[in-house]
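Hi P.,

Sorry for the delay on this. The queue was packed all week, but I finally got your sequence through. Input first:
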Amino acid sequence: MKNILIKDIPVNERPRERLIKYGADNLSNEELLSIILRTGNKNVSVKMLSNEILKMINNITELKNITLNKLISIDGIGKVKATWLLASLELGKRVYYKNEKNDVKLNNTKKIFEYFKDIFINEKQENFYAIYLNAKSKLISYKLLFKGTINSSCVHPREVFKYAFLESAYSIIVMHNHPSGDSTPSKEDEEVTRALMQIGKIVAIPVIDHIIFGDENYFSFYEYMNNK
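Then the structure:
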């Protein structure tokens, strides 16, 4: 592809000017990326950088899973440009989760798995979240509380229940991923679950499930205990 510079494009056809005139929804994926990245460098135009990013994915929905390392592997994209893009993507995720959350009733494990599975895609380490629900099992919020191998010494109950009190939660569901793709619980997973459920009974904010996410599969302690 010819290395076309933004300054070589007529002013009215440049991405920012087109956004102002026609609105963001009328811009191409390349143009939107060009606005976020802002500039290229002396060797590569921002237009070419945008196209290099798009070549990495099969369709635009996959952009949500792109990583810092993948972005900085592109010649011309350093950590600054990569963080601009990742921050923009994360903000978009939060906007949509925020808009949806008041209408989401998380009253069965399959629904929870479908709702949250995307946040674990391409994660190379375990991420431990707590989901806070109201009395109608509707989502109040969810928090990432820990990254790394899950065990009872690093998953602090005080963090799980601190946010429960702050959010006036009625109940809690905790969840984490197994990067191996195998959702079978470990001994440490069982210990963490047992400890959190016991504390939940004491403080009257029950931990109703601990869900382990694998590759398109999950393990639910709630389902396991109720199917014995």
